[in-house]
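Closing statement on the manganese (II) ion sub-project.
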Amino acid sequence: MEKEFAKNLLYKPTYAHLNQDRPTVDAFCNAYRAYMDASKTERDAVRTSVEMAEKAGFTPYVPGQPLVPGQRIYRINREKSLMLAVVGSESLAQGFRVIASHIDSPRLDLKPMPLYESSGIGYFKTHYYGGIKKYHWAALPLALHGVVYLKDGTRVDVCIGEDENDPVLYISDLMPHIAKDQVAKTASNVISGESLNLITGSLPFDEEEGVKLNVLSILHEKYGMEERDFMTAELSAVPAQKSREVGLDRSMIAAYGMDDKICAYPSLRALEDLDVPKHTCVVFLADKEEIGSEGVTGLRSEAYAAFLRDLCADAGVCDREAFRNSLCLSADVGGAYDPCYAEAYEANNSCYIGKGVVVSKYTGSRGKGGCSDASAEVMSRVALLLDGAGIAWQTGEYGKVDQGGAGTVAVEIAKFGIDVVDVGVPLLSMHAPSELAAKSDIYSMYGCCKAIFND
Ligand code: MN
Ligand code: MN
């Protein structure tokens, strides 16, 4: 065999950047950064996504009316998850094209009775949400986001720490000078869950009453809150910083909560771009993925299939047939190979930042446990779509066999009887307060979403 011919048989991933127009990528990523900065919790993300969608002509879905090709609809699920669709020209019996991502991210939730003081310092107790390295969250400016229902049922929205002039919350760490015992602990115990206490103040109410009452009085003045109202609230501490460009070449973005809004945003943009697609195209922005997709806003809820079933009912089409003919991307981040921690990865089967979207046949852990394992047929179908659209893509597992692993919403989609495969953006420092991704990969994800919707 001729050597030059033989060399072409080898697989070589390429830099996604080389086939992209840099100003176009930068413009897309600037808009993405604005979305990220305004979408730190799932409630924030639903609000910003609905604003985007309404500007693009989407209207609330009213079941029981005939569907019109090109029609743009959305359904909000309890302010914490969102489903959107653009109606296609073909019968729904030909199936949906779905992209499902999640908009919740690891963070620190306030406990139902969070308020206390100790040694002249006021605190909120927290219970972390999702998989975090707890020591990441100390000595970092934190913002408070959420909603409180007062005793009379009045709803109050809370956002403290995002404006430059706002105060922030803070978790202290022990100084290294006297940390001999602390640094000898394993990383998961360096800071315990019960030490993730948010500092809220240091001034007493007066000579008799302390810091706790002073903090409560500030909350009462600003929001009308009493202590009991924390029990009917959802308040979360998230990193207060905004997204930044990273690298002297400005090729990357660091931001909080990229897992998984780095997939949510491109899927929304791709949906907005559609005029009248052939298939009815759907975007799911799910909640609760980071704690197992449970709950009425998680993808294990019937709410998502119900949206698709309602559309089928409107079209007079059997939903089971529509599901059989559907294709879904479970759009979630991939754990990018990190050469500084090479021992955790298997280099041949890892994804790399800058080399395009990662298409993962399977996720799971300990022998693919708990994953949906896409078939060769589905892999081929998606590969053909991506190659046809000129989108850089690669494969990747979550680290070495038996090193750990991860699950995604793919299993929940598969339960509907819909073909599904995991596709996403490679991420460094996943689940850290600031995660890192390549701009070229974010733009590749946008192209990938368009390719699926234009199938
Ligand atoms: Mn994720
Ligand atoms: Mn995650």
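The chain has a mean pLDDT of 96. With this model delivered, the sub-project is considered complete and its resources will be redirected to Aim 3.
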